[in-house]
Amino acid sequence: MNRIEVLLATQKPFAQSAIQQMEEALGAANIKLEQLEAYADRKELMERLKNVDALIVRSDIIDKEIIKAGNQLKVIVRAGSGFDNIDIKAAHDAGVIVMNTPGQNANAVAELVFGMLLWGARNGFNGVSGFELKGKTLGIHAFGNVGQNVARIAKGFGMNVLAYDPYTPSVVIYRSGVEPVSCAEELYSKSDIISIHLPYTPLTKKVINRELLQNLPEKAILINTARKEVIHEEDLIAMMKERPQMKYLTDIAPAHPAEFLEMGNRYFATPKKMGAQTLEANSNAAVAAARELINYFESGNVDFKVN
């Protein structure tokens, strides 16, 4: 029987310690790990996919053409939670299983939320008096793994925390010491700060629009560490122009950066998506991806299948 081969293909490289952990875990199960990191050409990825049994990626775009290049590809693991970078239908049609590793970067993203929030609350540290987080109301839009970690940290700052998530039972939100609200409009109207953690789906595309944003108070801070596609950028830009104290903080490069940059220190974006960029999150996701592949090839386990 030929040895199972896994290709780790990431334009945004893992930390070396994470790769080592992945390699050790797979090696112990007699699974060979090949690496293609910081590649610049999709054709290089397609060539390397030949005769590979499994593929591990991060935010890399995996479309129908790439999936088709994997002539014996059986499974793709997204080392992270969101999987909108993978053509799920094409994978399904090709008989390829897609899995993700939810929750592995949740604390890393939550800590970044508060790094950016402190920057916003203190006016970009420009010397002008800002405000404290204690006693302010934080609204969490989607209460999954990241949202729950954001709530945990917020309570340490003495904040009041609300959450809206139609897919999470109110009792789960209550158990976290957070007050559930009945709709997004209520969340936005009652919060000084909104932290967005929505996945990108056809239902959430541009759902953060003028109709919803107009419920915010005049001095609101909007934080997005989810996906840029959930934001209606034109509506947000218009709202920020109408409300000279509103702020937008994100780790996702917008489609219209020049217009946001005109907002001065009311806008902040990291150069690249940084939510999961910690050694710990890298290691967590790498080990989880390796574990899922081992379980799949040894016992057919597909607990984290998304297609």
TrEMBL record:
This is Phosphoglycerate dehydrogenase. It comes from Bacteroides coprosuis DSM 18011. It comes from the Bacteria. Transmembrane segments: none annotated. It is an enzyme of class 1 (oxidoreductase). PROSITE patterns: D_2_HYDROXYACID_DH_2. Belongs to the D-isomer specific 2-hydroxyacid dehydrogenase family. The keyword Lipid biosynthesis does not apply. One of its GO terms (molecular function) is phosphoglycerate dehydrogenase activity. Gene3D superfamilies: NAD(P)-binding Rossmann-like Domain. Coiled coil: none annotated. Its EC number is 1.1.1.95.
